[in-house]
Write a structure and sequence with these properties.
Blueprint: H1 2-25, H2 28-36, H3 43-51, H4 56-69, H5 75-83, H6 88-100, H7 107-115, H8 120-128, E1 131-134, E2 138-141, E3 146-158, H9 169-185, H10 190-195, H11 198-205, E4 215-230, H12 231-293, H13 298-317
Antiparallel strand pairs: 1-3, 2-3, 3-4
Length: 332
């Protein structure tokens, strides 16, 4: 009896371990769900997925949804998409949504969009329900120099055919901003834009801004237009201030040149005066030398002194200076 109990216990453990291994290696629950949903897949194929490091629970539910929706897709395609890093569930949901909305969308196209990094399900929803993109405030200046600040709302619809390789929302916003600046800048007066804001919408919409993008622009509506600064007047004031500073700098330059020339003239006059004083200092010496050598007579000397005294007296009477004493030839 004791040996029978031990054998029964060992057999029960072995059976339990075998059951665990079977349920671990063979996803029977997933296989049973697939078979009951009409998805033809073998149990060994599910085991092979595990060895290929693919979780059957990520593939089989999506395959069940596709089969129930009547979408032709194989397990191989879903497994390839999963191994490539795609979102299998999102791709299948996008195919189902596109089929319901009667939007032509194939599995390969949906797969390419998903692997390109775009949300294909969101794109299908945007094709049915267009999205509104609000641009930031765009500042533009009319020809009369008045600044206008405009904000636009762009209604776009996803273009499934251009989702791969097409530009995104940033490009749409940039092109709309460029169109606003061009339209306002070509207007003769800012009043014309304020009176007809739809002028911006018509002009921008006619430019075909959605070319090369993943969206189709349905409408462009100007949400708000405000008057900004008088840029033209400010530019004129800045130019006048710049001209004034330039004229002031040139006047300072001319004044500095005049002062420099005056200083040069004063220095030249002082140098000439110094030379005259030096020459006058040599006169008494020359006269004394002439008297000693007999080249100048005494009478000539007194006559010259009389002339000098008479000249000094006349200058003093005329108010030009004081009467100076005759120079002493003997004094050195």
């Amino acid at each position: 009896m004791y040996m029978d109990t031990i054998l029964f216990f060992v057999l029960a453990v072995v059976i339990f371990i075998l059951l665990i291994l079977v349920f671990t290696l063979f996803p029977i629950g997933t296989w049973f769900s697939a078979r009951m949903s009409g998805v033809k897949i073998s149990l060994f194929n599910l085991v092979g997925m595990k060895f290929r490091r693919v979780n059957p629970r990520r593939i089989v539910p999506s395959m069940i949804k596709a089969t129930k929706a009547g979408i032709k897709v194989s397990m191989n395609d879903l497994e390839t998409l999963h191994l490539a890093g795609g979102n299998v569930d999102r791709v299948v949901d996008a195919l189902i949504a596109a089929q319901s909305a009667q939007i032509p969308l194939e599995f390969e196209q949906s797969k390419a969009i998903d692997l390109a990094g775009r949300n294909v399900l969101e794109a299908v929803k945007m094709s049915v329900n267009p999205k509104v993109i609000e641009t930031p405030v765009v500042a533009a200046i009319a020809k009369d120099g008045i600044e206008l600040r405009a904000k636009a709302r762009v209604t776009v619809r996803a273009n499934i055919a251009r989702l791969v390789g097409g530009a995104g929302e940033e490009t749409i916003i940039a092109r709309v901003g460029e169109g606003i600046v061009t339209t306002v800048g070509s207007s003769e007066s800012h009043k014309a834009v304020l009176e007809n804001p739809d002028l911006i919408s018509r002009t921008v919409l006619n430019k075909g801004l959605d070319a090369g993008t993943a969206y189709e622009i349905l409408s462009i509506d100007i949400a708000d237009v405000d008057v900004g600064r008088n840029v033209g007047a400010q530019l004129q004031m800045d130019q006048a201030e710049a001209d004034r500073r330039i004229a002031q700098a040139k006047a300072e330059e001319r004044r500095a040149m005049a002062v420099a020339q005056e200083q040069e003239m004063i220095a030249a006059v002082q140098e000439m005066r110094a030379k005259v004083v030096e020459a006058e200092a040599e006169v008494p010496k020359a006269m004394a030398e002439a008297l000693r050598n007999g080249k100048l007579g005494v009478m000539d000397y007194y006559q010259m002194q009389n002339v000098i005294s008479d000249t000094n007296m006349r200058d003093a009477i005329a108010g030009k200076g004081e009467i100076s004493k005759p120079a002493d030839p003997h004094k050195k």
